[in-house]
Amino acid sequence: MEFKVSANTEINKKRGLNKKFLDAFYKILLFIVIIGIWQISAQRIGSSLLLPMPMDVFHGFITCITDPEIVKNVLITMQRVLKGFMYAMGFGLPLGLIMGFSSTFEKVFSPVVDSARQVPIMAWVPLTIVWFGIGDGPTIFLIAFAGVFPIILNTIQGVRSISKDYYNAAKSMGASPFVIFTNVMLPAALPDILTGARLAISTGWMSVI
After folding, report:
1. Which GO BP terms apply (predicted)?
2. CA angle, 118 as apex, 117 and 123 as ends, to 5°?
3. What is the 3-state secondary structure (H, E, C) of 27-94?
4. Which of 42, 129, 92 is nearest to 203 (CA)?
5. Cα separations (Å) of 82 from 26, 58, 141, 188?
6. Which residue, 34, 120, 144, 168, shows the most beta carbons closer than 10 Å to its own?
7. pLDDT tens sequence across 103-138
8. In the prediction, which pLDDT does 2 show?
9. CA atoms of 195 and 192, how far apart (whole Å)
């Protein structure tokens, strides 16, 4: 019996390694095919403005990541995105938790949230310049504004998806509201919160321009 179990384990390991190898092989093959099509298309077009050669793009990439001025600007942009993301988390996470837990708060804040998130992000640019002036203020505000809604909506979804049985079980054992929040609500909603945070980061990068 032990021999069969060990043999099956070895077979499963080999299958897993073969699958990983095939996945890596297919990805490399697809990359080579794309580069080949790119190279042929660039040669036929014959214009570096419309479609540059892959090698020219690679040299340009190396130049960008080794240029101190470009690296400095990238770090400044990352700092803005991080600040905007932190503001979005600081505002969106508590609001999402409250709206997800309390239907009364959800009815009060939902019209405001739904109305504000329908406004295109570019429509806020003139107002942010008036409010915050020229500098990092408008950029950080737009990043935070764009990222706060995925956090709110995903947090609400995470809290609402928690079964009432968990709350009832915690209450039956004498858990306080704070204990229920830290040991039931927050851990159960964490996957959806992280999904909202990931979407907020990507939205912030798209809004930074």
Report:
1. transmembrane transport
2. 95
3. HHHHHHHHHHHHHHHHHHHCCCCCCCCHHHHHHHHHHHHHCHHHHHHHHHHHHHHHHHHHHHHHHHHH
4. 92
5. 35, 28, 12, 25
6. 144
7. 888 888 888 888 888 888 888 888 888 888 887 888
8. 44
9. 5
Q: What is the pLDDT of residues 160-200, one digit of tens each?
A: 888 888 888 888 888 787 888 888 888 888 889 999 999 99
Please list, in sequence order, all residues whose beta carbon lies within 8 angstroms of the beta carbon of residue 166, skipping any fewer than 6 positions away.
184, 188
Return d(Cα 202, Cα 118) in angstroms, integer: 18
What is the rounded CA–CA span in Å between residue 60 and residue 66? 10
Q: Tell me how far apart the alpha carbons of residues 159 and 152 are, in angstroms, rounded to a whole number.
A: 11
Dihedral (CA of 21, 23, 24, 29) sign: positive
| First-residue to last-residue Cα distance in the chain | 63
- Three-state SS for 160? helix
Query: Which structure tokens are listed for 70?
Result: 């470009």
- Residue 143 CB neighbours (<10 A): 29
